[in-house]
């Protein structure tokens, strides 16, 4: 068994980056029919190559494509699974005083993983990364159930749906591995809802049982990652919502900590810890594996002001009371642009945040 310290990046990132003006303009031109899909991709290629180099410059060892080819952190991936359709709905997702665009997804036929377009997206990133690690982010399988609608005529038995979902992801994980991926991150907001009593009440009002969701999501995730290659690192980011610097849910990790940290068979967790909404470090006492990394999201991606380095270091010391320091790392609490609109800070502030993470990590893990 590897220890976490053998495979951890002390300074890491969640993945999404602010879309550049060139990307935004090209996407608008594509919608208006002024450029072709191939021309849009050429702009994306150029901008992704630029931001990969910038990530290297600030000192990150694992680089991403910033999700520059996506409008959403989850829907773009999910609606390209076999059996899933995307469509425009009546309402978007409600955040604090803000609402997203009205995209939605529905399972309309049996699930499978075909020639997913993001395989080519990863291959480009892998080439651009060079001797750095190419990190790719996809939504957790839980998100298809949590954010999507399932046609009950296709899956009258929900157990069959979850089994097919697990097998679809298992096939997808292998496909990314075959394309060269050795660092895959699963992004998930469902678990954060299950930390919030307010959100659990809303789930119950919709006829959903939070305890059932915990059981099924955990089983599905473990089936999906089972038998993966030994040299493929899989982590999960648990998010409380990230849209235009706003959020959805609050609540510490206590309600899910024992299940997730003790029973989910992945290599690490990215945990939001940038404010009081995330609770304290006490739930980390359930981390009982020396090979499980915990990446502390102590630097916010929602605003541009830099945190006091000494305050961040002190909080890392506090977390180390529950988890060995060698299993810990540092990152922003979320991406900078979970949707193409992005958070309310500048690109210059974004890079300063990431460099801040790198500098603090060098001080802590000398």
TrEMBL record:
Keyword Zinc: no
Protein name: 5-methyltetrahydropteroyltriglutamate--homocysteine S-methyltransferase
Origin superkingdom: Bacteria
Pfam families xref list: Meth_synt_2
Species of the source: Mesobacillus maritimus
UniProt keyword list: Methyltransferase, Transferase
E.C. number(s) listed in UniProt: 2.1.1.14
Cobalamin-independent methionine synthase MetE C-terminal/archaeal domain location: 13-341
Taxonomic lineage of the native organism: Bacteria, Bacillati, Bacillota, Bacilli, Bacillales
InterPro entries registered for this protein in UniProt: Met_Synth_C/arc, UROD/MetE-like_sf
CDD domains: CIMS_C_terminal_like
A GO molecular-function descriptor: 5-methyltetrahydropteroyltriglutamate-homocysteine S-methyltransferase activity
Record keyword Methyltransferase present: yes
Any one biological process term the GO annotation gives: methylation
